Amino acid sequence: MAERAWVKNLKPGVELDEVYVVRTRELRRRRGGGNYLAVTFGDRTGDVVSLAWEHAESLAKECEPGKVVRIGGHVQQYQGRTQVVFRRAEAIDNADVDPALFIRSSLVDADVLWIKMQDYIGAMEDADLRQLLFRVFSDPDIEARFRVSPAAKTMHHAFRSGLLEHTVSAAGAALVLAEHYRLHKDMVLAGVLLHDLGKIWELEAENSIEYTDDGRLIGHLALEALYVDRVISELENFPDEHRRQLLHILLSHHGEYAYGSPRRPKTPEAMLVHMVDNLDARLAGMFEAIDQDGDSDQAWSGFSRMLERNVYRRRL
Question: Tens digits of per-residue pLDDT, 60-70?
Fold first, then answer.
């Protein structure tokens, strides 16, 4: 069996006959008239921009986003970046391929991350918040989804178990900062552990990460706030002030109206959760940009869409 042509290993001049998942697809107008097709193909090692100059309309029918296709073409370099020019594309039944080929997984074992999160919950001193967190994460359906869900479609921790990795990492940082600023540590921790819970309903990951209908229409902030409020209503004597402040954290953790928050942070705990969420996401984006080219000795990474900059790769 021939060795797989992973995206990260594609070199200019190579003839290509391989299976990839379609990330994006766009028919574009050529300057001289007619259309060409621009597709982003990917596997778990990365994505590559690919162009079809001929038969754009017929190839577009085969290249439906989220579907797996076998493509034929050649690899070239354009303006310093690798791209593929393809002439052939044939859709393949998704049931016949291994999803692990197309979606990366966290480098940290999900069992280790889950145990760490349970340790955080078990150490909470506030009995009401501890009971709430236990009720949420002891639900078998919640656990099954939370263990494998990505944290985003493209921006940060966009891989299998990325949500769990991001949540545990942010929780560790938040606890240190909550103590430094003398905040309500358990409220901060509850906010961090629940701040992206809605991602388990917002995103689905088969061969690619896509938004669900609920994700498109409602979004994870509202989904998690509705769910947490319902669980709170089932608990006896849960403090009203705890409910109010926790729901505020969930609804404000994106920080600004422009970023999808219906409220901006108005408590110190909410501000910290927002800042730690952003910190962990952006540092993860930096590390991903640094690691993108593997063992390359290049001083600068490729351009990061998330960070809107190139990242200096040389570490002290």
Answer: 999 998 889 99
